[in-house]
Amino acid sequence: MELFELVLLLLGAVLVSAVLDEIIPRVSLPLVQIAIGAAVAVAWAEPLDVQVDPELFLVLFIAPLLFDESRRADKRALWDNRGAIVSLAVGLVLLTVLVVGFVLHWIKPSIPLTAAFALGAALGPTDAVAVMSLSKDIRLSKRQKTLLSGEALINDASGVVSFQFAIAAAATGAFSLVEASASFAFSFFGGIILGLTLGLAAEIVLRALRSRGLESTTLHVVFEVCMPFFVFLTAEHLGVSGILAVVAAGLLMAFFPRKTTSDSSRIKIVSSSVWDVLVFVINGVVFVLLGMELALLVSPTWDRSGMSRSMLVGCVMLVTLLVVGVRFLWVLGMEAWRARAKRERTGFGLTKAAVKSLLVTTLAGPKGAVTLSIAFTIPYYLSTGVAFPHRNDLIFLASGVIVCTLLLANFVVPLLAPKEDSAEEDDAADRAAEVAILRNVIAELTRERDSKSDAALRVVAKGYEERIARIVESDVAPERLLQLRREVVERQRAYVQQAGERGDFAREACDCYSERLDRMAEMLGGRRPERHAQKYLKRRAFLRVRDALKGALGSSGETVAAEAVERYRIAVGAERCAVEYLASLGNQADADEAMAVRYLLGEHHAALRTLETRDAEELGTLAASVADLQSMAGLRKPSQGQRTRIVELEAEALRLELEQIQSMKEQDRLSRDRARALREEVYLLQMGLGIE
Question: Which terminal residue of the chain, N or C, has fewer Cβ atoms less than 10 Å from its own Cβ?
């Protein structure tokens, strides 16, 4: 029961941090979660005894985090910068292990050298989430972003493997360079080979299930979530690196070619959402635990370690200085070598701008969840049964360095690489990001497909090119556009209600379509009129009862077809209503409103043409009110196979668009408000395609 209460407490703290992150966006989320964890530990009535089995912590937290990072990796960016990334992820980690280990052991001889090496290994990896969660006032170059993200993926594995060898040497008290080298090679390459093998086997199993019609969204997502745990445990059982196996399996599964269908698009959308939530919770729990440990370890550590307060604080400062200093010198040497390799005549001069760039790359790689997760895996006892020397001290030092590097990244880096606050520049940056999002979607769609022979792909790509042209050529005020969208939905609401009252359409079909319009209005920031609230609840209850009866009694094909025809007629009527309303505003609108009117007219004209090219039965689940489906425009009498293919590609494109929006927001190329508005537009488009 105590464990269950602790889990609820941790999840509650993560939930509070998500709310505070929206309120105080200038402070990185990890710092917020650390503060919440410390506050909870101090305020709790009884002392919180947080003890997690080290092996359990490794498989429960690190394995899924690395698997998710691997499956999100940009293979092109990794390959283009492979030399620098490997240098930072392997060479820098090993140098950090040696420097921190020798210096810490020299200052405090009671800490065994192998234990000091273990601390250095834990402090080697940078945290990808911490990098992306930095203050939004930071401006990073494209190369810096690529290096930091690529480094964070690979150095986790090198840090964990180094840590495991150091801990093994500390626990057993025996170390042989020859045996360690052979064991390292076996663990390293064996983990990679096993991970690739299991990743390939997983893809074969999924394809076999898919070919027999047995794969569902639930099955695929559960299979994917269980994959890192299965790979890690299998690798550890065989004596190879579980971390490297997980990374290798994730990379292979991410880069494995897949055929795009409506089912695969739906699976990708759900899978992405599940992993986003899972990774957010895992990282949040780790940082909250860090805050708790900082509050709980202070007193016991100072009382029992024999180290004075000044010694502990001084060690934290010293180790932080060592980690940052070694990283700065390594980055300096790496960039100097790069300049020499390019044979630049001017060489690599230490100008003010160059030093700032080096400092940004150095400080923008803070330690985070992976470092603390590794530190928590330090065993409580040696193989002889004696308590592991200075375990609490090592965890405290790791926690202190994490906090220091996060503070440097959150408050110093914005001073070195500030972001301009010009409203005009921000608006222009948002528009540029929108264009980049759409171009990236086109690139992803056409990467593994032949657009010359795929007519449906050409139609979808043409639609995105038209959207890009509208963004480039127009300068529509977002506020006016949002207001106009609300007005259009209200007009469509009134049209459907009046048509239902006149008996133009079946009452059930009108109620179903009205409910969809209500959801769209809420998504646009509106709300259902209070006078219709009771009526809406009755209608919703009626629809639920009706659907339940249909499910129990079954529905004839004729009934389903008739309902599909009615919904099709309502959708066409609602689009015509929107076009007529917008056309009536053309002569009365001012300059800003005229732009918004033209923009929406293009959307609704395209949606209307889309509806008129489809069979009524196919549109049985389609609500195309505000949907931007202009990619169907111009397609004359497409075959049913073409229509199905276009819908599948539209669904895939919208999923990619959501991913690109999130990526642009995390890279700070898109403002928080604009990202939210773009996501809402995509959700409306997905509703139009029947993706709910």
Answer: N
Residue 641, pLDDT above cutoff 80: no
Domain with CATH 1.20.1530.20 in the chain: 50-278+306-416
Determine the distance from the C-alpha atom of residue 264 to the mean position of all C-alpha atoms in its chain, rounded to a whole number.
19
**Taking the chain, what is the end-to-end CA distance rounded to the nearest angstrom?**
37
Distances in whole angstroms, Cα of residue 364 to Cα of each of 407, 480, 521: 10, 38, 41
Q: Which residues contact 36 (CB under 8 A, 6 or more apart)?
A: 13, 16, 17, 20, 288, 291
Residue type, 36: I
d(CA 664, CA 670): 5
Return the bridge partners of 582, or none. Answer: none
Q: 50-278+306-416 adopts what CATH topology?
A: Na+/H+ antiporter like fold (1.20.1530)
Q: What is the mean pLDDT of the chain?
A: 76
Token output for 656: 């990619």
What is the pTM assigned to this prediction? 0.61
**Do 359 and 117 contact (CB within 8 A), yes or no?**
no
d(CA 320, CA 324): 6
- Token pair 């669904």: residue: 651
Residue type (1 letter), 644: T
CA dihedral 220, 222, 228, 233 (to 10 degrees): -120
What DSSP character marks residue 418? B
Q: How far is CA 679 from CA 363, 628, 661, 673, in A?
A: 32, 13, 7, 10
- Which uninterrupted H or E stretch holds 185? helix 177-211
Closest among 80, 77, 81, 88 to 333, alpha carbons compared: 88
SS3 474: coil
Q: Which amino acid is at 479?
A: E
The percent of residues in the chain predicted with pLDDT above 70, rounded, is: 74
Report yes or no: 331 and 362 within 8 Å, Cβ to Cβ: yes
Residue where the block lists tokens 């959402």: 273
Handedness of CA 419, 420, 421, 427 (dihedral sign): negative
Q: What angle do CA 83, 86, 90 make, to 5 degrees?
A: 150
